[in-house]
Amino acid sequence: MQRITIIGTGLIGTSVALALRKASTETEILGFDANPAESAAALALGSIHSALPTEQAALESAALSNVVVLAVPVFAILDWMPRLAAVMKPGQLVTDTGSTKLQITESAQQLFTADTAAFLPGHPMAGKESGGAALAEASLFRGAMWLFTSTSPETPASSAWRALVAAFGCRTMDLDAARHDTLCAWVSHMPQMVSTAISALLLDEFGDDPALTAIGGRALREMTRLGASPYSMWRDVALSNTEPLAATLHAVEQRITHLRENLRTPELREEFRKANTFRAAPNAPKPPTA
Amino acid sequence: MQRITIIGTGLIGTSVALALRKASTETEILGFDANPAESAAALALGSIHSALPTEQAALESAALSNVVVLAVPVFAILDWMPRLAAVMKPGQLVTDTGSTKLQITESAQQLFTADTAAFLPGHPMAGKESGGAALAEASLFRGAMWLFTSTSPETPASSAWRALVAAFGCRTMDLDAARHDTLCAWVSHMPQMVSTAISALLLDEFGDDPALTAIGGRALREMTRLGASPYSMWRDVALSNTEPLAATLHAVEQRITHLRENLRTPELREEFRKANTFRAAPNAPKPPTA
Questions:
Q1: Of A40, A172, B172, B277, which one's alpha carbon is 20 to 30 angstroms from that of A5?
Q2: B155: number of CA atoms within 13 Å, CB side?
Q3: B268 chain-A contacts, CB cut-off 8 A
């Protein structure tokens, strides 16, 4: 690849740029961010070769790129898609890193046709509770799952992008966009919202009482870690995956209620047995083997 | 100290023994466990010098010890307390590691008087999601908080025990037993029950479908880690701290409901703002500095 343009040089976009630099020394990487401080930080980190100053410059760079990576929140991706479809040609590829895929995949089917660039919807299951180029790492995707929800045939450019993702150290999986959104509601969006709700509740209950955190250990830390996550990204998840997310949260509420009502009954044993079984399963969530 | 008897050589009791061996090479450490395999494992790890074969042997060893450490679930602690009070004398100390403190502290006030050994109620805020001597570590308590809820004057033996706890690398705090139980409901018992509820729910929803865990990353792993915790210990927490725990779970249920009902309203921004504030506070839960 000769040129890749990354739109959105926050944590994910800048980490993609760093991983690309490791995987391919020949490719020129250009980056745009609506916040010039972010693209300046990405440039200072040596992730991108040039920072594009304006949206117009980003579109001009996109028109000359093999691949454009949209690494912005979901509704910003949806905004960029028609603009890119208008200036990019067959042989070129647009891909994205958005957290929800149904709306993006449906939009791609309408906008990206045989007469335009191809579009490969993607979603790396990687991140941190805080965003920004400054936290980016080339190794962010190592061992992570990178999901694809494509509905169109592979092209040479999409195959080349998949090879790069594999070179980042990712496992990959292709799945239906609706199933993606339901699964991600369970494994990612629900944990985020539960952590946000508990963190906000603890602020209301304890303010800056130091006793809480002096006493709290790993359980409190893990349960509230995602409380630091930015609203700007998660608002788009909440708006673009409302029904599946609301269904998982409702199920969680009911399950906590059930456990609370059984703190003094034998049913508590059954809940612990099921939880133990979930964690003991051969494919239970384990820390990545380093 | 010449002799310490540890009753319960699971994860906590055996870790205490290992930490004692590091802190004091002169002390003989004897251990009893209702499961002989656990005391045999503790002996094989070099944590205790001898494994006591029977409850009677444990009581005889207790009568000859400077300190007895009760490292068993809360109701087992409550069962051992009158038996130890009957055989131990002024100058000796009984202490414990129970997760809830109100019932234990009230019982200690009645059973341990000027005519008996002293009792120092304690609670190390350390552990793992799985129990057992095999997982014990001398460093388990390093940087952790060890809480005390004493209502009686210090004795030479209780001061010596506090010095050993400090030598384990612990911070310590003294607080009222009722406040202890309320704070621990928030920082420890609620996260446990939320994790158990979510893990049990995921088992019911997904069974052994590999997609869930293939896709899930750190968020799912952290949110369900405590799902592996043993019922035997947590049943006693649920029974001995029911009201504070039920109150925190009810508050969490209501907060998740509130967030779910506001996935598409500006109130979601406010919840994220509060959660961000909680995590950004100077005393927010941070990983231990290694």
A1: A172
A2: 22
A3: 231, 234-235, 238
Please name the residues in contact with A68: beta carbons below 8 A apart, sequence gap of 6 or more.
Answer: A4, A5, A6, A7, A62, A84, A88, A92, A93, A94, A95, A117
Q: Do B187 and A217 touch (CB under 8 A)?
A: yes
Whether B217 has a pLDDT exceeding 80, the answer reads yes
Q: Smallest Cα–Cα separation from A121: which of A139, A144, A97?
A: A97
Q: What tens digit of pLDDT does each residue of A199-240 get?
A: 999 999 998 788 888 898 889 999 999 999 999 889 999 999
Test A199 with B286 for CB contact under 8 angstroms.
no
DSSP class of residue B140? T
Q: How many H-runs (helices) and E-runs (strands) does chain A carry?
A: 13, 9
Distance from CA of A269 to the nearest CA of B (A): 6
- Number of A/B CB contacts below 8 angstroms equals 307
Confidence of residue A289 (pLDDT cuts 50, 70, 90): very low
> pLDDT tens digit string along B152-172?
999 999 999 999 999 999 999
Return the amino acid letter for A40.
A
pLDDT category of residue A286 using cuts at 50, 70 and 90: low
Closest CB from A192, A199, A278 relative to B202: A278
The pLDDT confidence band at residue A283, using thresholds 50, 70 and 90, is low
Interface test with B, best of A190, A232, A267, A276 (most B CBs within 10 A): A276
- Which residues, at least 6 apart from A277, have a Cβ–Cβ distance to it below 8 Å? B203
- Angle formed at CA B156 by CA B155 and CA B162, multiple of 5 degrees: 90
Do the domain assignments include residue B285? no
% chain B with pLDDT above 70: 98
Q: Cα separations (Å) of B99 from A142, B69, B125?
A: 39, 14, 8
Chain A residue closest in CA terms to B281? A208
Alpha-carbon distance B153 to B161, whole Å? 14
The answer to the question of residue A65 being in a domain is yes
Taking the CB of residue A26, how many other CB atoms lie within 10 A of it? 6
Q: Cα–Cα distance between A284 and A129 in angstroms, integer?
A: 22
Measured CA distances, B27 to B67, B88, B140 (Å): 11, 19, 20
How many domains does one find in chain A?
Answer: 2
Domain carrying residue B211: 179-280
CATH code, domain with A229:
1.10.3660.10
Mark whether A67 and A164 lie in a shared domain.
yes
